[in-house]
Amino acid sequence: xxxxxxxxxxxxxEVEGVRGRRRAFxxxxxxxxxxxxxxxxxxxxxxxxxxxxSDMQDSSWSESSFWxxxxxxxxxxxxxxxxxLRGLVGTLSQADFLQVMDLESLQYDFVYLPTDFKKNVRxxxxxxxxxxxxxxRAACSLLEGHAxxxxxxxxxxxxxxxxxxxxxxxxxMHESVADMHKPLVFVDGARAPFPAPTEVLTFPPFQNKKRxxxxxxxxxxxxxxxxPTENRFxxxxLRQLPKRMTRCALMQVLKDEGFxxxxxxxxxxxDFIKKVCYGFAIINFVDPQTADMAMTxxxxxxxxxxxxxxxxxESHQGVEALIERYRNSKVMESxxxxxxxxxxxxxxxxxxxxxxxxx
Length: 359
Prior knowledge:
Radius of gyration: 37 Å
Number of domains: 3
Strand content: 15-25%
Mean pLDDT: 76
Strand order of the largest sheet: 9-4-8-5-10-11
Oligomer: single chain
Order of helices and strands: EEEHHHEHEEEEHEHEEEHEEEEHEHEE
Low-confidence stretches: 24-76, 208-229
Largest sheet: 6 strands, antiparallel
Distance between the termini: 93 Å
Shape: elongated
C-alpha cells in the first residue's frame, strides 16, 4: 500500500498485487499507521493527533498557508540600489532636483543629471543610487507618483562603486566642467568629494564652442598661469581650423601666443588634391606642464578661429611616438613639398627629420 498526496486529500493505492479499490480520505482521517481503513470501519477520529478536525478549525491554520504560490516560488532578494528617472524637463537644475529628493526624505548617495552641452539643457533623465535596496524600493514607490516621471532600474550600472568607476575617469569630471554638470556623491546626506581619477582626464570636446570675436588681449603673449597637474600628455590636436591655414601661419600664431620654442613637433595635414589643409593640426610640446598650459590657453583664445577645438591626442603621445608614426609615411617622400611635411624643432629651430626605418 502506498500513500499519495492529492491536494488536501490523502489517497491510498493498493500495490504489490493486492487487489482492492483506490480509496481517498480527507486529511482529517489520517492519524497513526492503523488508520487507513474504511472510515466506517470503526476508526475513532476523536483520537487522531495529526491534522485533526479541531486543528483544522484553528484560526492560525489556513489551506492557503500550505499551498500558496509564494511557497512554490523561490524567494530572491532584490539588492538593486540604482534607478534611472526619465521624463525630466530639460530645464530642471541640479539644485531643484536635489530639493525634490530631500522633500521626499530619500536616502541617496549618488546623483547625476547628464547635460546636453550643445543645447545647454539636460538630457531629460537622472541616475540616482540609494544607500540600500530598501531605500531604493521606497524611493521608487514615492517617485512614481510624479506625473511625468518614469522610474526604472538601471541596467548598465548598479551600486555606488560601479557608478564611481564609470565616471571618475570621464571627461565630464574635468576641472573645466562646472560642478552643476558633474555627478555628485554624498555621505550621510552631505556632499562629499568625488574620488580622484585614476587616469589623465582628456579635455571635454563640448567646451570647444563658438566664442564671440574679441580683440586680442595686450597680455596675450604671456603664458597664463596653470594649476599644478599630474598630466603626462604632451601631444594635442587642434581641430576645426580654417581650410586655408598653412604651417607657417600656424607657427606664427603659436609664437604670438607665447609658445615659441615650447613645442618640438608640428604637423598640418594637407589635402593634395584640393590644396587645402584637412582642418586639424598635431602639436607636441616639450613637457606636460607646457602642454597643459597651451591646452588651457588655446581653449580660451579665439585667435585662430571661433570654432577651433582642442583635445589631447588619443592615437600618439610624445615626440618619439610621432617620429615613428611619420618617418615611414608617404608624406615624407621626396616628391612632397617640405611645407606639407611634419617638422621637428628645438628651441624654435627646425631639425632634420629622421629617415625611414624601413625600405
